[in-house]
Amino acid sequence: MTKYIRYPYVLFSRLFPIAYFYLMKWSQLAVLLLPLSFCAQTTQQLTDAMAVQLAEKPLHCINREYPNKTAHIINNAGEATLSPKELHPSFYGCFDWHSSVHGHWMLVRLLKTRPHLAIAAEIEKLLQDSFSPGKLQTEADYFTIYPLTNTFERTYGWAWLLKLDQELMTWDDPRARQWHKNLNPLTDKILASWRTYLPKQTYPNRTGVHPNTAFAMVFALDWARAAGDKDFEKQLIDKAKYFYLENTKAPAYLEPDGSDFFSPSLEIADLMRRVLPQKEFVKWLDRFYDRHSLLNIRKIPVVSDLADFQTVHLVGLSFSRAWCMKGIARELPKSHPLKKDFNEAADAFLQNAFPLLFQGNYGGDHWLASFAVYALEESN
Fold this sequence. Notes:
The protein has 380 residues and is mainly α. 64% of the residues lie in helices and 0% in strands. The relative contact order is 0.11.
């Protein structure tokens, strides 16, 4: 009953599910159909107050062990009793390993860019504990000690680990240099796994959830360029072209699936803008989307139940669509019609998604703040 008092929409959705569905549908449609000038004037900005609110999410879950989805393949009876914290002493919280990793990325990003935040000391203390050498060495050893770990967190968790490493690598601060050094053994394991896997990956995963190939390659390519790893960069570029260069008329009119937090088509476009020179990218993009698909990916996702751990993924879809559209728009010439359209659609997605961040439960709380911060960083 407490949650009904705190979140009356939950009670309404239980008592009148059909009415609630259409109320959500029409209210979100109304946001989509707002005058474009309004959307352009209300671009979300990451204020200090908002940063503190968002930071509270990972601060409260990074050391929360349960509920937990370990994704560990149990090889024998002895392993069956291992707790999440025993398996992953640094990244055991926030429901699953990858969410903990990108929760750490978010806190690093905020401490790096906003060191004056009132909770900066609390963030630093938590990171200092998570990034201790012994804990991170155990995280790295996980990929050696246990059989069948070559598929663990492939490739979503791998991508976020490289994003975390990139954030530390590019921060000129003594704390970051030490944390980056401590993270190196785990980063090296992830890189070795990726270098081994890429040549054998015959087909990309075009899903809207964790295994999405294009999303992971975006973060991997960004890391390779920041690290100056030319061999890995070339490997990623060659594979991206192999997977996507000849793609035309993407069936984005079928998006999304019911638990998507990525747009499969936009993730591909977000990757290819990094791979191709501008003129080639524009030609590629014009072949990749038709009008039907472009109209569809601008629609605001209908999130019928914020308390459902899968349905709440659709809130993340608004954030990831926003960061993809903003990034793509930056690469387009001023005369291209999608430059304005994608910027305006991205603003509408952000306006829609932010109020939902604080209305659900742990299903969204353990990961959505990271998506929100990344979307805002990429959108401004």
